[in-house]
Design a protein that fits this description.
The chain has 618 residues and is mainly beta. The chain has seven helices and 32 strands. The chain has a domain of 188 residues.
Length: 618
């Protein structure tokens, strides 16, 4: 009977913990915040830069950097990167390429490929709505598969279905590209022409993508995390999963003695979210944007991913901020000389510093709440010897995080717990992901215009430019007519080149043979118009069977990767995308950057779940 009573008590304790976690998630989720998407840079080889959508600045890219709507990613020669959107979808970008995140919301990803070669990978069927726009066409990868897209110097598009089938849209109609086929599209976005050929031969870029896929599908960590959490593939080779009551499965990182969470990295200002933790730990995405940390005397630090049965939203970090030590603080009513932070333990009360009404323009000091506390009485992890990290208030505002201090709860003593808006606003350095400058990469895509099936441009139109063609927009702008190397004549029919056809015209009867290299246009052969009859008959290469790779993880989670910035040395790939002529970058940006200031931080805000995920949700 005593054993039964103990078992019932243990079960009740677990239920109480689960209900507390679920209640915390429900209280913290903001409807506006849940609409937003956050992608991440999951791999970098070579030179990768990011043009911030809020400020228009080019900054050096790093692994685990967050990406939001209107950010651009550019790569140098012999460079490449990978961007994850959720647990099943990612974009791999080759050398000399430029891509803009035109729309990034929960389950909605619209990308503009200005130049270079990319591969969009969907590891299994998803409800996410993805669209990849080029100067000629709009590609909609709605199903599991691997889709390679190249935009060459002339603005012509080459689409290869390496695995699965994909539909390509234009104003004149649509055309399917089946597994084992390549489409080359050229001409005005209002009236393009295309050719279907057998898929181009495998090259080093495809083999590298296959190797990334193998790393992802062989991961096992996703089975231990609840719905909505992504980026867990990095945990596989950097720690171990163990079962610890009453939490269940938790992850223990393989780290040096004296290590602590939220110490190796920096705070970066992001539009809407305010201060976001960018970790320099190679695995530092999921454990810093979902779940909670706790310390056990027998094995050290462990990450609890959160309760199952509820969807977790992305958070910029899950810490408690506080001020301590007298000094010249920033902002009226904040007289502390230092800012400290401590990782939240499971089920501790969370006070988001972002949300509606907190970070809006002119709202500084309206949402700041400071409560005098003894820090060890409020935060469990503050009692751990190395549980608190801190910098001076001036260093925090100025983006100087190279000298983050470790302090104990006894050293802090009485503190001002920050509940709500942070009393420190950003400087120019606060928007950088790293101390190093951005690589000198030629950006030449500002006058490029795209066709979008959704017809949605950016949120802020460029002054003096009108949108006179539905679905056509300039790179970074809301309006503008279609433009590429083959413009259509106003009021006249464009005569196709030899072997070309437009939508509405009958297709040729002889199959086209590939005689050109990737990234170039075949000038004769079986070219057709989108919407024409007969484009899927004998003239089209046969559809190839697709055998998806086996996956070790749960069906609702993305397979994981094991290659990270620190676990694997950087290599210099031999593959580069086509190299367009350079031109000056555009300065248009619909995301609004708050002005640098010494006290407040105007921006807009929202808050998410305690241990959750707002970006890339399926």
């Amino acid at each position: 009977m005593r054993r039964i009573f103990q078992l019932r008590s243990l079960l009740m304790t677990g239920v109480v913990f689960w209900m507390a976690g679920a209640a915390t998630v429900a209280r913290a989720q903001d409807p506006e915040d849940l609409k937003r998407g956050v992608a991440r840079i999951s791999l970098i080889n070579g030179d990768v830069t990011v043009r911030r959508g809020d400020s228009g600045e080019w900054v050096a890219g790093v692994v685990n950097a967050p990406l939001l709507t209107d950010d651009r990613i550019a790569t140098g020669a012999n460079s490449r990167t990978e961007v994850e959107f959720d647990s099943v979808s990612c974009l791999r970008i080759g050398g000399n390429a430029e891509v803009r995140l035109a729309q990034l919301e929960s389950g909605i990803y619209r990308l503009e490929i200005a130049k270079g070669t990319v591969t969009y990978r969907v590891l299994h069927d998803t409800t996410a709505n993805a669209e990849l726009d080029t100067p000629s066409v709009s590609v909609r990868p709605a199903h599991e598969g691997s889709y390679r897209i190249t935009v060459n110097d002339a603005g012509e598009t080459e689409i290869t279905a390496r695995a699965g089938d994909v539909e390509v849209f234009t104003p004149r109609g649509s055309q399917w590209v089946y597994n084992g086929q390549t489409m080359t599209a050229r001409g005005s976005a209002a009236d393009p022409e295309f050719q279907m050929v057998t898929a181009l031969s495998y090259d080093e870029w495809d083999r590298w993508n296959d190797s990334r896929d193998r790393l992802l599908v062989q991961s096992t960590s996703a089975q231990y995390v609840p719905q909505g959490v992504y980026g867990t593939e990095d945990l596989d080779n950097s720690g171990t999963w163990v079962s610890v009551a009453p939490y269940g499965n938790v992850w223990r990182p393989s780290v040096a003695v004296g290590w602590s969470p939220y110490h190796n990295g920096r705070w970066v200002w992001e539009d809407w979210y305010g201060w976001v933790w960018v970790s320099y730990d190679s695995w530092g995405w999921a454990p810093y944007h979902y779940g909670r940390w706790f310390h056990d005397a027998s094995f050290g630090w462990a990450w609890y991913p959160g309760a199952f049965g509820v969807r977790h939203a992305w958070s910029p970090a899950l810490v408690g901020f506080f001020g301590y030590g007298r000094g010249m603080g920033f902002g009226v009513g904040f007289g502390y000389g230092n800012i400290g932070w401590v990782p939240l333990a499971p089920f501790e009360v969370f006070h988001p510093w972002w949300g509606l009404g907190l970070n809006g323009v002119g709202s500084f000091n309206r949402g700041i709440s400071l409560t005098n506390v003894t820090i060890t009485n409020v935060y469990r992890n503050a009692r751990v010897a190395n549980g608190i990290s801190a910098v001076s208030a001036e260093d925090f505002r100025s983006g100087r995080f190279a000298g983050i201090q470790r302090v104990s709860g006894s050293q802090v003593g009485a503190a001002g717990s920050i509940r709500g808006q942070m009393p420190v606003g950003p400087s120019a350095s606060s928007r950088q992901f790293a101390d190093r400058p951005a690589a000198n990469i030629a950006h030449s895509s500002d006058n490029t215009r795209f066709y979008s099936r959704s017809g949605q441009g950016t949120q802020r139109p460029t002054a003096g430019v009108t949108q006179n063609q539905t679905g056509l927009s300039r790179f970074g702008d809301a309006g503008g007519a279609a433009q590429n190397s083959r413009p259509a004549q106003a009021g006249a029919s464009q005569t196709p080149a030899a072997g070309f056809h437009r939508f509405g015209e009958p297709a040729a009867t002889q199959p086209a043979q590939r005689t050109t290299t990737p990234g170039t246009t075949q000038r004769n052969g079986n070219w057709s118009s989108f919407g024409s009859a007969g484009t899927t008959g004998s003239s089209t290469p046969a559809r190839q069977p697709y055998n998806p790779p086996s996956q070790n993880n749960r069906g609702d989670q993305r397979p994981a990767q094991t290659q990270t910035q620190q676990r694997s040395p950087q290599s210099t790939p031999s593959y580069s995308a086509p190299r367009p002529q350079p031109s000056a970058p555009s300065s248009s940006a619909p995301r609004t950057a708050p002005p640098a200031n010494s006290g407040g931080h105007p921006a807009s805000g929202g808050h998410a779940a305690s241990g959750g995920h707002g970006g890339g949700r399926r």
